[in-house]
Amino acid sequence: MDKINSQTPLKKGAEASLFLADWHGRRVIVKARLPKRYRPAELDEKIRGYRTAHEPQLMHEAKKAGVPTPKIFLVDMKSAAITMEFVEGKQVKQLLGSMAAGERQALCFRIGELIGRLHGHGVIHGDLTTSNMILNGEGKIFLVDFGLGEKNAEVEARGVDLHLMKRALQSTHYETAAECFKHVLKGYSAVLGEEEAGKVSEKIREIERRGRYVSERREET
Amino acid sequence: MKPTAETLCLGVESTADDFGVGIATFNGEILANASSGYIPEEGGIHPREAARHHAEAADKVLNEALSKASVNPRDLTLIAFAQGPGLGPCLRTGATVARTLASYLDIPLVGVNHSVAHIEIGKLTTGATDPVTLYVSGGNTIVSAFDSGRYRVFGETLDIALGNCLDVFAREAGLKHRRGMPLGAALERLAADGEKLISLPYVVKGMDISLSGLLTAATTLLHKGDGRLEDLCYSLQEHAFSMVTEVTERALAHTEKKEVLLTGGVAANKRLQSMLSAIAKEHDAKLNVVPLQFATDNGAMIAWTGVLAYTHGLATPVAESFVKLRWRLEKVDVPWIR
To answer: Are A15 and A61 part of one and the same domain?
Structure first.
């Protein structure tokens, strides 16, 4: 049977633990959603099961939209674990800070294009942060962590998705957040078209105005 | 100014339903923490009614704090007040009291951010130094941590606050707010007798959560008479608390900090405490729960944060002391942290 050898812990995230392993001579990632004892078992199983089943489906949909995601090898519903390709590269989070302005803007533009393709295909990522984007040696950007995603083509869902991207930039790359997000939107607009992108931008503003204590009713960036 | 036990700051809190006055020494001793809460006849907080309560209670609460601390107003060095965020009429009432005191005593005035104050008093009273903070109250649901000069917001609610969600459900279920027994406590007591987990919406979007759908679903079941009230209270708590715990854990994993600070009125809930304790353990972090009198809105937190601000060069001339209703946590410089 399928044997996964020599699992070594790679990262203990909040949502799942990642292990680097060997599977038929390939280096793979085993993403295991371990039980969370803080919530009731019934609720925990429901959440872990749902996310484990949906994540590979959405990754597959993303590929169809032309967005690189790791190949899926195995899905084990019983232990809520997904075995997938190990993408060798660096998280965008680690790279963004040390990049020159031009390079950074180009990267953000490309990220925007990927998000545009996803949304155009009716996929919402659900957790767009720079830690969930991996730049590999060939310069390809892979999107990972679709566990909070969904199939949805509504402007509201697209708006929330991009709002989360903006928020992630603000909390982790605060110095360049405004500029980065501007270029993400440019790339997004280049794929989806001015009109669609404009609707989503307007929605982002609406979502922000809904938020707690937004400093007056104006766009700040 | 050198921090000594003789230099004193009086802080005024009035962002929502509580009017509080606290007195802190410049070296971090809390001498008094008096307050008076406005309890609506029915429904939630009516801002103007709450402000009227504050205006009427100000004199009594001020005197109570001064006599508790055995301080003569002439001994005060500094007046601090919660400048925002909060309800306009309530904020203005507190600001008026603070301006009057500062002008009359001819001492400096400093406006502080209410959310920052919650974190600072939490650190002072628990000994935490650099925590991931979960601040959950009737008006706020924020996961934050310090990074490069400011408290950054990692996660928050996209719609209503956690305390608001629980309070509205409790009121819909006919529970009453009594002195010493807030709605949340009444709900917690019922939830303790819950046995069956009823499936409700669980909405986590990235690091943010959404609670309005959960509230609507729970309220709909309540009015349909579907299920025992105890089970509904239990299920509502389990879903809502699991959501905030999940995002707090994500912030903890992301920042790799070693402390969790739980504050705000909902911090009193034992079930929420136990969930956070589980994730803290999981990440080798220490959970610090802010003692209730400093976790709910209080004047002491404003006084202490005023001390921190003033001793680091901040002051608010009366002419610039207008209130800021929507003053976000991440917009505030905190020069007292390296």
So the answer is: yes
